[in-house]
Every structure is written in C-alpha cells, then in structure tokens.
Specification:
The complex is a heterodimer of chains A (319) and B (295). By secondary structure, chain A is mostly helical. Chain A folds into two domains: 26-65, no CATH class; 85-318, Orthogonal Bundle (MetI-like fold). Chain A has 14 helices and two strands. In chain A, helix 5 packs antiparallel against helix 8 and helix 11 packs antiparallel against helix 14. The longest helix of chain A has 36 residues, at 30-65. By secondary structure, chain B is an all-alpha fold. Chain B folds into two domains: 13-72, no CATH class; 77-293, Orthogonal Bundle (MetI-like fold). The two termini of chain B are 20 Å apart. In chain B, helix 10 (187-195) crosses helix 11 (200-211). Chain B is 73% helix and 0% strand. Classes of the chains: A mainly alpha (319), B mainly alpha (295). At the A-B interface, helix 2, helix 4, helix 5, helix 6 and helix 7 of A face helix 2, helix 5, helix 6, helix 7 and helix 8 of B.
C-alpha cells in the first residue's frame, strides 16, 4: 500500500499533487488516497479519543460547569452565582495573595539561582557529570517524599531540625519555619526550588553551550569584565530560553498545591499557606462544590492567559 | 555531556590554566563540589539516616550526625504498617500500563501526523499542542467529573487503572517529541519500503521504531517518573486503600504514624525513581534538553 506522500498536511484528496519529484502518491488514484487517509486516521484514533475525552471535552465542560449548579442530581443554569460565591469566600483574596507571593518569591529565588548555577557549571571542566546528576537528583524524588523530609526533619521548629541546627552552628537565630506565618512562604519556595530547579539548570546548560565563544572574546577585547560579559553576552544570547522558562515557571508556580498540602496541612498557620489550587481542591472535593471549584479554575485560567498574553507581547517586541 | 575543553565560554580557557587563574579555578571547583554535595545529597543522607534514629534521638538538640543506635525496625515498620509492598506494586502497575498506553497510542499518532499525514492532520496537531497551554490544575475538576461518568458510555473509572492510563495518553509533549523525531527520518527510506509493498504498520514496526529507540526510551522513562511523582490525580481517582499509589498511601498514613516511620516509607518510595535515574541519567538529561530547548 502506498504512503500519502503529499507534502501539505491538510491537502484534500483528489487535488493534483504538485510535488517536485515522483512519489508513490502521484501514482495513487483517488480511491487509494481515501484509503490512505483512513489508514492515517486509524493510527490517530487512540490518541484522538483520549485527547477528546480527557482534554478537549473537560476544557469546555469546565467553563459550562462554572455557570451551572448541580444539587441532588439536578443541574440548573445559575449565571454568575458560582463566581460570586467563590469571590465572597473569605479565603479567596488570601489565596490569590499567597499564590502571587509564592510566584514572585519563586521568580527571585527559583529563577535566578538555576541560571547562575548553570553559568557556573558551564565554566567548570571537571566533575561535570557528577554535578549535573546532583542537581537533577531531587527532581526524580516523588514530591511527597521530599516534602515529608522538609516537613519533619528540615523545618522542625525546635533546635532538633536540620535547618535550625545549621543556623545555630553558624551563630544565626533559628526560625519557626512553617509555624511562623511570615516564614511559611519563603520555606515553601525553598523546598519547591530545591525539588524543581534541576530541569531548568540542564536546559540553561544546553542553551549556554550554543553561545558562540567569539562573542565572549570580542567582549573581553573591548575590556568587558566578567559581570558585563554575563549581562551583555550571556543574557541576550539566551534570552529566548530565559523568557520561555520564566513563562513556564510562572504557570507552574501559580498552580502551587502539594507544598501547602504537605508542609502546611493545607491552609498553614493563620491561612498563610492557602493557595488558589488548594482552594479549588477544598471547594471541589471537601465542600461538595464542584461548580464553584470549576469557576475558580476558569478564573485561574483567565489570569494565566493574561500572563501568557504579556509574555507574547514582550517576546514579540524584542524580535 | 562535558563541554569540549577547547570551546570558549565566559572565561578564557587560557586564563584558567595559568598562575592565579589556575588556583582560583581549583578553589571554585572544590567549593562547588563540596557545596553541591551538601545541598543536594545532604538532605538525602539526612533522610536515610534520620529514619534510622529512635524517636528520642530525632528530637534531641542539636541533632546527631550519625544515628547512635540505628533502628532498622523503622524501615520494617514502614514496610508492614503501611503495606508498602501493595502500594509499590500498585504504582509499578500503573506506571507500566502508562508506558504501554503512551508508547502504543502516542507513537501511532505521531507516526500518522509525521508520515501518513491524513486530512486535517495539521489541525489535529495544533489542537493537541494547544492543550500544553492549559494548566493541569484548571482541568482537575472537569476531568474528575468526566472520569466518574464518561461521556456516551457512562462508565465510572474511579479505582480503575484506566483513570490513570487514558488521561496520560493525551500528552501533547510526547506527540511533539515523537513527531519531531519521526520527521527527521528521511522519506526516501519509507518510500523504499513502500515500493517493496510494506503496509504503513509494517513500515512503522520494521523501519521507524527500530530507528527511534532512544526517543522511545525517553518517553517511557518520563511516563514512569510522571506516574511515580504524580499526587493529586491518583489521590482523586484512586480513593480506595487497595488502589492507592505509594505517595498517596504515605500521605494517608502520615497523620497517625510516627514521623521516623513516615520518613522511612518516603525513602523506600523514592528508591525506584532514583535507581531509574542513576541507570538512565544520560537518556533522561538529553531527552529533557532536546525537548525543552527547541520546544
């Protein structure tokens, strides 16, 4: 049987093939091309059904659900009621504030650190394999395992905790960690960064290896010091990947969920850990309010779409 | 993975080989190796040895660097009290199924989109890639509602492994990765097979797949780690104690179990992915960068 060698993916069957060299498709008749399309769709059908049922349909369903209310098996349209109820929840604004604080702190710590680590590793000529394995190792731990380690051993508020022991050894004041409302967010960012930075480091390392060495040489001849070379050569040369990972990181950190769930038992001291994703989980699966949770999901989608729009504007302008 | 020593990076190689630069380089290298070992391996050491300490020893200030009186019993307790064998078997079963489902359906789809190019293929690919833009948390509620009452067939997939396997097939990243790899296989090779009368399935099986082993390996490893690391989705769709994954099981027991035992269980739960990583580190790291860089 012939393969459809037509170059255009959306070509309709029956149109003449303007392909430059003879291909099996040129010899194929109309019936054969229909059959080839059928074969193609047969190969696609498994993935297509899964996408349709578990991705495309839930997207629509989520929006529809957010305007409905299901009580005792009866579904009615309620307009914006779910949104009103969700916004009136006293935790709503706290959750957004916490989520933004987490995203912001994670950008300061979790975004700059992997880039600097990658720059450092890229300069080293020894132990490179070992260091890369080390940095990526936490990424392979199940997050629940890693977070129990932080919760019980590292963030133990007494002097028996790992971090407090290190602080004491350095002569610094100890911290209450998750027991303190002001330390909750930094502690969660620290744990999250430790768990997740490996991926970003490896991606930056790959990007750094594509920076042409001549640029550094030229900059050095012009008298640019180490810092100026980073700012004027490294950053501009890797800015597309920097922007992409910033975007991906914002989307990931805005979905903050398992850190508050395990480290802070959900809400944390004085609601200091409640995140938007945790609120979705609370409403949907504990307060029996799937419609409200769907509405909150739609709000989250709109906010993240806003970020993406800003990202696209910024990157489009640069080119 | 090491950079070619002759390539120029931020700092000139010549500068690092002479006098002060050389001393500085070795100092920085030593500091980096020590600090990174402490930062990334230290907590793991703390975890493994901490789980060996007794309840009193873990509460003492300052904490001890080595367990004075090792209690391997904590690990035994974790294994028996949490029924870790069952939890690990469940997770392993879901991970294996996820690998098979993803390899079969995503490979077939990527092959169709790359080589068979049926009508509307471009649109389908675009719609698949669009799902990458949708954060998982946004979909969690409607996905859950879908799984407890599948459209058309009205099946409830709660506690069925299909609730984990099928949604994982809808992985646009895999399709993208595989399609890009298949795109790099020259059409001439395929045309030769067609001339010999091979069917598309035959071509996929005997020409495309053998050439694609590295990328199939990457997809399989990522599928295993994704299932092993996932938490919220299995927690929602596998509510019974008998069907739980290992992370969810430990979380469910964490409240009423001594913390040493919880940590011991966490260590055991982490062993499979860490071992997998140490064996396949090259594939994992190269798969990550090829997918991430050009994506």
């Amino acid at each position: 049987m012939a393969l459809t060698a037509a170059p255009g993916a959306t070509r309709r069957p029956g149109r003449p093939t303007p392909s430059p060299q003879p291909t099996p498709a040129r010899r194929a008749g109309r019936g054969r091309r229909v059959r080839d399309n059928l074969t193609g769709h047969t190969f696609l059908v498994g993935a297509l059904v899964c996408f349709a049922v578990f991705s495309w349909y839930p997207m629509v369903r989520g929006v529809v659900m957010s305007f409905q209310r299901t009580r005792r098996g009866e579904t009615t349209w309620v307009g914006w009621d779910n949104y009103a109820r969700i916004i009136a929840d006293p935790s709503f604004w706290t959750a957004w504030k916490n989520t933004f604080v987490f995203t912001g702190l994670a950008l300061v710590l979790g975004y700059a650190v992997p880039f600097l680590v990658a720059i450092l590793l890229n300069e080293l000529r020894h132990a490179t394999g070992y260091l890369r394995v080390l940095v990526y190792l936490p990424v392979m731990l199940p997050p629940a395992s890693a977070l129990f380690l932080f919760k019980f051993y590292a963030y133990d508020p007494s002097g028996a905790g790992l971090f407090n022991a290190v602080l004491t050894a350095l002569g610094l004041p100890t911290s209450e960690w998750m027991q303190s409302p002001t330390m909750t967010m930094p502690a969660m960012v620290l744990a999250s960064t430790w768990m997740n930075m490996g991926g970003a480091v490896l991606i930056y390392l790959a990007a750094l290896q594509n920076v042409p060495g001549e640029l550094y040489e030229a900059a050095e001849l012009d008298g640019a010091g180490l810092w100026r070379r980073i700012v004027h050569v490294t950053v501009p040369q890797t800015r597309l990947i920097l922007a992409l990972l910033a975007m991906l990181q914002i989307v990931a950190t805005m979905q903050l969920f398992i850190e508050p769930l395990i480290l802070a038992n959900g809400a944390g001291t004085q609601d200091s850990a409640t995140s938007v994703a945790y609120l979705i989980y609370q409403h949907g699966f504990f307060q029996n309010d799937l419609n409200g949770a769907a509405a909150l999901g739609v709000i989250m989608l709109v906010v993240l779409a806003g970020f993406s729009a800003v990202y696209l504007r910024l990157t489009a302008r640069q080119d | 993975m090491a950079a070619d020593p002759t390539t120029r990076t931020l700092i000139a190689p010549a500068q690092l080989r002479r006098g002060r630069g050389r001393i500085l380089y070795w100092t920085v290298l030593t500091v980096v190796v020590v600090v990174f070992t402490l930062v990334f391996l230290g907590p793991l050491y703390w975890m493994v040895t901490g789980a060996l300490k007794s309840g009193q020893e873990i509460a003492q200030t300052p904490p001890s660097l080595f367990p004075h009186d090792p209690q391997p019993g904590n690990y035994v307790d974790a294994w028996t009290n949490l029924d870790l064998a069952k939890l690990l078997f469940n997770t392993f079963y879901y991970a294996t199924g996820a690998v098979l489902f993803q390899l079969v359906f995503d490979t077939a789809a990527a092959y169709a989109l790359s080589k068979l190019r049926p009508v509307l293929g471009g649109l389908i690919l675009a719609m698949m890639l669009a799902t990458l833009m949708i954060p998982a948390m946004v979909l969690i509620v409607p996905q859950y509602v879908t799984v407890i009452d599948l459209p058309v067939v009205h099946l409830n997939l709660l506690d069925s492994p299909f609730a984990i396997w099928l949604p994982l097939v809808a992985n646009a990243f895999n399709i993208f990765l595989l399609k890009r790899f298949f795109d790099s296989i020259p059409d001439d090779l395929m045309a030769a097979a067609v001339v010999d009368g091979a069917s598309p399935l035959r071509t996929l099986w005997s020409i495309v797949l053998p050439m694609s082993r590295p990328i199939l390996g990457v997809v399989a490893i990522f599928a295993v780690t994704a299932v092993w690391k996932d938490f919220l989705w299995p927690k929602l769709v596998m509510p019974s104690p008998e069907t739980r994954t290992v992370s969810v099981g430990i979380y469910a027991f964490a409240g009423g179990t001594p913390m040493n035992v919880v940590i011991a269980a966490s260590v055991i739960a982490a062993i499979p992915t860490v071992v997998l990583f140490l064996i396949f580190q090259r594939n994992i790291m190269s798969g990550l960068t090829t997918g991430g860089l050009k994506g």
